[in-house]
């Protein structure tokens, strides 16, 4: 029986019942998958456009298309700049989403707030650029891509808010990341001990088994010798 006032062990917190913050950890998995997928796709677009041709990568013909203000000849925010900024932000945001996913899985208390900030900022960013590509550049493809990313970040924002509510309702213990005294760190998720320790234990078990077999053979040999002696055989 645990003394009153003692905090539960972080390793035994979920024994016999579902994890208290299972939704938050599930949201962390979703964030990791979504962030890694967006990062890889955007990196492929970035590298692939450079492999096609220099004109495809730079698109200098879009430098004069954008939102103009009275006075300057060049637009304040051109389509060329918008595409470069959007691709850069998509790559960085993908890494950020995956990083906060790790924090959610580790049940860090501030991870849901950071995930909500990143998701909300991403949703506003893609809403702005969806309007830009729709009304300024009039590109159906880029507008649909921005709307798709807007929907993704909207879903991530909803999940982050749910994780924040769960974390606020049932916060993790302060000693969640502290291992108890005497805890042995496993070698891997499949084996508790290292290969050397497992090999030594296997050799010791074989030695004990051979010792038992040796005793059985000696007993059998002694019995055969006694039977021969009783029959007068040498």
Structure summarized in a few sentences:
By secondary structure, this protein is mainly α. Helix content is 67%, strand content 2%.
Described by strand count, sense and barrel closure, the largest sheet is: 2 strands, antiparallel
| Distance separating the two termini | 69 Å
Q: Shape from CA axes?
A: elongated
Q: Report strand %.
A: under 5%
- Radius of gyration from the CA trace? 33 Å
The number of helices is: 6
* Helix content percent band: 55-70%
- H/E series, N to C? HHEEHHHH
Strands of the largest sheet, in order across it?
A: 1-2
Stretches with pLDDT under 50, minimum 5 residues: 1-16
Mean pLDDT: 79
What structural category arises from helix and sheet content?
mainly alpha
Tell how many strands the DSSP assignment holds.
2
Account of the protein in words:
It contains six helices and two strands, in the order ααββαααα. The protein is mainly α and 234 residues long. The protein has a two-stranded antiparallel sheet. 19% of the residues are buried. Mean pLDDT is 79; it is low at 1-16.
Features:
234 residues; mainly alpha; two-stranded antiparallel sheet; elongated
Which helices and strands occur, and which strands form pairs?
Layout: H1 22-52, H2 54-58, E1 66-67, E2 77-78, H3 79-105, H4 111-137, H5 140-169, H6 195-230
Antiparallel strand pairs: 1-2
Helix pairs in contact: 1-3, 1-5, 3-4, 4-5
């Amino acid at each position: 029986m645990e003394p009153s006032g003692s905090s539960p062990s972080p390793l035994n917190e979920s024994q016999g019942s579902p994890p208290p913050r299972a939704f938050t950890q599930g949201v962390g998995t979703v964030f990791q998958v979504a962030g890694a997928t967006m990062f890889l796709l955007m990196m492929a677009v970035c590298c692939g456009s450079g492999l096609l041709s220099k004109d495809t990568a730079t698109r200098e013909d879009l430098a004069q298309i954008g939102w103009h203000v009275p006075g300057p000849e060049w637009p304040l925010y051109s389509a060329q700049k918008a595409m470069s900024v959007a691709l850069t932000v998509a790559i960085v945001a993908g890494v950020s989403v995956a990083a906060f996913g790790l924090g959610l899985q580790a049940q860090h208390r501030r991870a849901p707030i950071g995930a909500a900030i990143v998701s909300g900022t991403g949703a506003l960013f893609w809403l702005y650029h969806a309007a830009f590509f729709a009304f300024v550049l009039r590109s159906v493809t880029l507008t649909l891509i921005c709307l798709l990313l807007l929907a993704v970040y909207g879903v991530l924002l909803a999940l982050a808010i749910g994780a924040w509510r769960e974390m606020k309702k049932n916060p993790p213990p302060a000693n969640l990341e502290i291992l108890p005294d005497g805890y042995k760190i496993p070698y891997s998720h499949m084996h508790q001990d290292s290969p050397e320790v497992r090999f030594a234990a296997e050799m010791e078990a074989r030695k004990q088994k051979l010792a038992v077999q040796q005793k059985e053979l000696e007993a059998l040999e002694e019995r055969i010798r006694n039977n021969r002696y009783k029959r007068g055989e040498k």
